[in-house]
Amino acid sequence: MLFLTGILVIGILLFLILTKKVSALAALALVPVVGALLAGFGLDTFAFAVEGIKSIAPVVAMFVFAILFFGVLTDAGMFDPIIDFILRMVGNHPARITVGAAVLAMIVHLDGSGAVTFLVAIPAMLPLFERMKMDRRVLACVVALGAGTMNLVPWGGPTLRAATALQVGVTDLYTPVIIPQLAGLLAVIIIAWFLGHREGRRLGVEMDTSFNQTYQRRLTSEEEVLRRPKMFWINIMLTILVIASLISGWVEPAMVFMLGAIIALLVNYRNLTEQKERIDAHAKASLLMASILLAAGVFTGIMKESGMISAIADQAATVIPESAGRFLPVILAVLSMPLSLVFDPDSFYFGFLPILAQVGSELGIEPVSMGQAAIMGQMTTGFPLSPLTATTFLLIGLAKVDLAEHQKFTFGYAFLITLVMTLVAILIGTIPF
Fold first, then answer.
1. How far apart are CA 67 and CA 396, in angstroms?
2. Given phi > 0 = left and psi -120 to 50 = alpha, else beta, which region is 135?
3. Whole-structure pTM value
4. What is the Cα–Cα distance from 399 to 298, expressed in whole angstroms?
5. Same structural domain, 249 and 364
6. In the chain, fewer beta carbons within 10 Å around the N or the C end?
7. 198 and 313 share one domain
8. Tens-place pLDDT, residues 65-99
């Protein structure tokens, strides 16, 4: 019963979101509630939902104040010199811009945090994309690909979960996948160049080899009034302090951005009326995405607490035919990225993967090989597309794109990178075939 209900809930949810039958907010909140009630959980359904909301609350708070923080700094003009510098470096062709966005995401994601990557890379690059009239889906795509592929790092969530669940050393798990990961990063850059070059053709921008033809930015009169050029270095120092605090983990992210937003308001707009206007200007975006994030908490809370996801994992492990056993690592690697749309990381790595590893052990396959196959895509290249992770909503909220549009646009490229890494892993013997 739980298995069928869980499959129906996830299937209906993905159908509604991808086909835009209802908003992501409505689908995430209503579908699991109805499913759990029909499954007989009664009032416990709402207790499950509250547990999910509690788990997501710090992310919601972080998002709200992060939007305000970066919004105030953008209004004050802190990104203007940075954007101008990037423009001088990448020229005026979208291919260089998209590659720059992908590389920026890779560098920032060295800390293994998707939230930090999106909070840094998207606000820095979005004004450039908008001024060049480039497709925002391309920005969300290349940043997602860069962050997702970098998420294989040994201190990243998927690798740590896989090593813990299979009781293998992190270095034993990660070292053999370094070459496949490098191949994946190269594939990201190639895809970013391809998407940028295609954008260039769409916009009618000719490719050039010089770096001195820059896009001339023009501020509106409203933007000019809001700019605080004398506060540039203070804003830069504040941003560095906020990001350093975020990466260090000394202070909870929600508090980091709350305090950062307050300080940004006080130093740039000292008049109380101006501060209220800046808050009002960014309230709509904050409220909309906060609502979606809380609805995502309802979904994950009900699916986890009710046991639906565990039931799906148990059933999935029992339907693997023996003839396919020797190809289990390859099958897992190929399916790992799409499985990110079905399983949250904890359910997959702690519930589903150990069962698969046990099946593999009985067929002579080392558990570490199953772990390496899993991280080819499960919550690595797949995490920035999954509706089961809050950071996906953070990404699309910052990039101002719809979840369905982002998934349709990015899925094929993310899946391609997983296939590239899987092929390289097979060729060098990391994944047995």
1. 13
2. beta
3. 0.69
4. 24
5. no
6. N
7. no
8. 888 888 898 888 887 776 666 556 766 688 888 99
